[in-house]
Amino acid sequence: MARGSLTDLLADAFTTVLFGKKDTTRLPVRTSTNQAEAIYLPTAAPGLGDSGVIIGREVYSGKGYIYDPFQLYGQQLPAPHWLVLGESGNGKSSLEKTYVLRQLRFKDRQVVVLDAQGEDGVGEWNRIAEAVGVTPIRLDPHHRGGAGIRLNPLDPAITLTGQLALLRTIIEVALGHPLDERSGYALKAAHATVRADSLRAGVQPILHHVVEALREPKPAAAEEMNVGIDEVRDWGLDVALVLDRLVDGDLAGMFDGPTTAGIDLDSPLIVFDLSTIDRNSIAMPILMAIVGVWLEHTWIKPDRKKRIFLVEEAWHIINSPSVAQLFQRLLKFGRRLGLSFVAVVHHLSDVVDGAAAKEAAAILKMASTRTIYMQKSDEARATGRVLGLPRWAVEIIPTLSPGIAVWDVNGDVQVVKHIVTEIERPLVYTDRAMTESSDEEEAGADALDDLPPAFANAESESEPDRPQLPPGARANARALPPGTGKHSGRPEAEDPDLTAIAAAVFGPRASNPSHTRRGA
């Protein structure tokens, strides 16, 4: 034995010198699956924290997925803006709607939605607005005689610089090219004339006044350029023809008068219903530009509120150089004042290959959060190149089922299944005409009247007829009195519907996640 052992040692030493150290041979371990769970512990990437809105569940780890750009801004997010991509019918709309409904449970949130999708003769967000207790602002060019809602591009709340920039954008979108220097001067002179005349008369300037000033320029405008007055009139002719469409043409009825009084900018939810506008006409980008600039000067304020500006069919904004420049400024300005911009588009190729590729790239760069639903393989590869997605994420995008998306939050990439509660279901799902019978449609409409008492706020006994807000993300948030921006100071009792969504995400025994608001 001793001689054999010595021989083995000498052989091992010789082998080590020639071939290096011999690896230790591991004996196999025989165990059961129950024991293996303790030996090989599962691992998962850290989440985004537990403060914010419940989105759903991470597909691979099973963890609940919670997201809030305001909580993550400055730490994990360089910008609070969000891009949502994907083919129709894969869950973009239901994600947007449940996200807004759940955000509205925070007492310091306000949301504006540009609703460009029509359904059943009204905007797609009409049911959401009814549930919250607000009336959508319906912009309709077919209204005549002052019956419709109007937004004035020359509203005194908008700065002079903002008014002139907005007028240039309207004209450039309609013409399809930038204004030349002569036309730009004629517009500037007409705007200055209208401004001076309205101040003397004490009235609000309107587009009709600008059209008249372009048709009949003041002699001072010609003298300043040392040209004849007829030349100045010729310079402004195309500009006057474009603006005339908003005054007496096919786009009349929305911008040709003072801003309609009574628009509640303090409401927790403001929905601009654009569903009557042809989505493929020049009216849509013009409309979005006017609404965006008007909101920039009237809605966004330094009052520490967190605001969400959600735009359906956002390619109208990103694909037009002039409109994209306006919104690029809005995003930079709004970020400092707590604005999160949410852009919803079908295909990234709609925007990166258009005339405003440079402006689109700048806006996409500011969107630190990207959510990508199912796309075809070619589109997924193009999206991955533009957004810098990892290869594994690009490969699974064409295979995603409805309701499942790739989330890229400043490089933290996860596959997330969005969860919709039974109470939210009749409010958020679209395409009802294709998927429901008439009886089911009635049942869906009745759901607005059947919202359970758990959605009632602390003062709901005094307002029993108002529909209440659907479930949100946190148990200690205040319930929202419909149609107002004010909240009861008393904490609400345990919300069984919040418990239901928490149970759907975290398991039947889970309690609601605690979200401590900063400064609370």
From TrEMBL:
Alphabetical list of InterPro entries matching this protein: P-loop_NTPase, T4SS_component
Extent of Acidic residues compositional bias: 437-449
Region feature Disordered, mapped onto this chain: 431-520
Keywords, comma-separated and alphabetical: ATP-binding, Nucleotide-binding
Keyword ATP-binding (UniProt): yes
Domain of life: Bacteria
Molecular function as annotated in GO: ATP binding
Name by which UniProt lists this protein: ATP-binding protein
Record organism: Actinocrinis puniceicyclus
Lineage: Bacteria, Bacillati, Actinomycetota, Actinomycetes, Catenulisporales
